[in-house]
Amino acid sequence: MKVSIEEAEKFVERLWFRHTDSTVIAVLQDAKTKEVLMVGHMNREAVIRTLTTGYVHFWSLSRKKLWLKGETSGNYQIVEGINVDCDGDALIIFVKSLGPVCHTGNKSCFYRNYTDFMKDVNGKKEL
Amino acid sequence: MKVSIEEAEKFVERLWFRHTDSTVIAVLQDAKTKEVLMVGHMNREAVIRTLTTGYVHFWSLSRKKLWLKGETSGNYQIVEGINVDCDGDALIIFVKSLGPVCHTGNKSCFYRNYTDFMKDVNGKKEL
Known about the structure:
2 copies of one chain form a homodimer. Chain A is an alpha+beta fold. The radius of gyration of chain A is 15 Å and the shape is globular.
């Protein structure tokens, strides 16, 4: 999915960038399996780049910069569709995932269920 | 899914409440259909109440208060499982949904795809 810059600009005008650093929340969901892969933030520019290139871009809250997902790993996430929530402050991005989204090598960042997480000695320090 | 207060307190100790009002992001996903229903925020107390009661609770960013999902509508969301992301600042809550999560009456808050959203004259004003 790819749209023109004019259309992307119309789209962002309708969103509510209410979260940290003027962002919306973006949930990446595998278009085929429906697995939730990760949650990130997008500012206006990240949404526009995502829509105009067809590749997922985020705003990194930690590094305070725009970020093409997969730019170092090659694991790009291709946009197949977008849904918007009722108040316009969150998006689901349906993707074709060209490789694991997680820096741990897991397909999804949500690779631990409750039990695994409670057993995991690294806990929140695993970054 | 329900755990003791002691276990819930251990769980929250391991999370990273980095988002607005010291919250984690919670993605509600239908345990059966895998549909993403909504995105909300949970502070420590909301996570603890969710875990100890088995009913989804949020921290409302707008109203600045704890909120039992379904307390007015009766559409409670029952917790069937929880996954945690790699840096502990986001959760997937797998739920059995006792009714629509959205105030619009839709099963999911993400009821509009890109095309519907662009056509929707109410846009972000629909709250």
